[in-house]
Design a protein that fits this description.
The protein has a single domain, classed as TIM Barrel (Alpha-Beta Barrel). The chain contains 17 helices and twelve strands. It has a nine-stranded mixed sheet. Strands 1-2-3 form a three-stranded antiparallel sheet, with helices on one face. The longest helix has 32 residues.
Length: 418
């Protein structure tokens, strides 16, 4: 299991990345710019429980470990975009859906209504090459169930020195041999779904008997192989309101997971036309933030990562198109795997996709675009996802006019010296 460290140890582990970038900013933007670099970096780490895994420092699993080329690239990206003003979009995390096939039928599946195909391995290689040119930092392989494919393991081995790789999986197919192979090939993070500590409730959520046992075995196999192991869970209203979340937290700690990712039901995929009763209200959303803050300083609890905390206006705001993006099995480029709008096909028109990303998502947003704009997105939905760019363009233009008048999340104000 990863062990807790303090900020000084994180800086020591990442000194080769941090010192080089500090002096680069100092040279190009004087002491004021260098101080802003230190301030924003401190802001990022200050509300997280820092860990060491494989002699690398980990802030949380949406940031590359340090030292690494991808960590050096992510801090340079922030500085180039907001301090040195050399580019518009700091593209960091990109998820690639390698297949829509999946042995389960989760009630909240965000991939429902998306193209039902496998991405050709040559296209995956092409996309990774494009993302390298765009200076992306983390590549996540998702689906469907990405572990149904074995040819993508070679992608990880080929590019592990350039990117930090994550696999988002139900655990299906992660036996000991596969976990060890992925570790040897250079996989660092793996996120395994577990939606309940009760096996019957988990199986019901997954729509398949035996899903609980598959997840538990996969978590154990990932840990045994030495992968940084994240348990990812979709937290429901009932789990929060019945107090089951605390039992779940204890269960995750006993599993010896390195991190616990708390997600919530979102209005996309299978839930795009769902009523509000399934989604967390403001008070329940605040509970997820509270859990993160409680666990941050308590090593007896699992380290928690929650979008409720990360995407709060006092932190980073909505990450769609700014912190993360998504590419479906046909090559359609989404601002986020939950925001089902296409900016075009990265395989066919990469330059146009990047230009649209710069135009519509270079300004950070304080709120979750998907949930705040649900009614407008429902109007655009015609039974298939993503909504094509030609149909989504009007919505994006109208939103662009509004977003420029809003305050930015606190992190970006800090970056700009405000």
């Amino acid at each position: 299991m990863a062990k807790s460290i303090n900020k000084l140890k994180l800086c020591w582990l990442g000194k080769s990345n941090l010192v080089r970038e500090y002096f680069r900013v100092l040279k190009n933007k004087d002491i004021g710019g260098a101080n802003r670099f230190v301030k924003w970096l401190n802001f990022v780490v200050d509300s997280e429980r820092l860990l060491e895994h494989d002699k690398k420092g980990v802030i949380h699993f949406f940031i590359p470990p340090t030292p690494s080329k991808s960590f050096a690239r992510i801090i340079r990206s922030y500085n180039d975009s907001y301090i040195l003003k050399r580019k518009k979009v700091p593209l960091h995390n990109v998820l690639i859906s390698t297949t829509r096939k999946c042995p389960f039928n989760c009630w909240y599946c965000s991939a429902t209504n998306t193209p039902e195909s496998d991405m050709k391995i040559d296209n995956i290689n092409k996309i990774v090459s494009i993302l390298k040119e765009w200076n992306a930092c983390i590549i996540g392989l998702t689906g469907g169930e990405p572990l149904l494919r074995t040819d993508t393991d070679e992608i990880i081995r080929k590019y592990a020195g350039q990117f930090t790789f994550t696999i988002f999986t139900s655990g299906y197919g992660l036996d000991r041999a596969r976990a060890q192979k992925l570790k040897e090939y250079g996989l660092f993070y793996i996120a395994i779904s577990l939606d309940d500590y009760d096996n019957k409730r988990h199986d019901e959520a997954r729509g398949s008997k035996g899903a609980f046992e598959i997840s538990i075995k996969a978590i154990n196999n990932a840990k045994e192989a030495g992968l940084y192991t994240v348990v990812q869970s979709v937290i429901t209203k009932s789990m929060l309101n019945n107090g089951q979340i605390w039992k779940f937290m204890k269960f995750v700690k006993e599993l010896d997971a390195d991190e616990w990712l708390l997600l919530e039901p979102l209005g996309t995929g299978k839930l795009i036309n769902c009523g509000n009763d399934v989604f967390l209200n403001k008070e329940e959303h605040e509970q997820l933030k509270l859990l993160h803050n409680i666990a941050q300083k308590n090593p007896e609890l699992p380290k928690i990562c929650s979008f409720a905390n990360i995407e709060d206006p006092t932190r980073f705001g909505c990450g769609a198109g700014v912190e993360h993006s998504y590419i479906d099995t046909e090559g359609n480029f989404w601002p986020c795997n939950f925001l089902p709008l296409s900016l075009g096909n990265i395989l066919e028109e990469p330059n146009a996709v990047y230009s649209r990303l710069e135009r519509y998502f270079s300004t950070p947003c304080k709120y979750c675009i998907l949930m705040a704009e649900r009614k407008e997105l429902q109007v655009l939905f015609n039974g298939k996802l993503p909504v094509p760019f030609e149909k989504a363009k009007g919505f994006l233009e109208e939103r662009l006019n509004r977003i420029g008048k809003d305050d930015k999340p606190k992190f970006y104000k800090l970056l700009e010296g405000k």
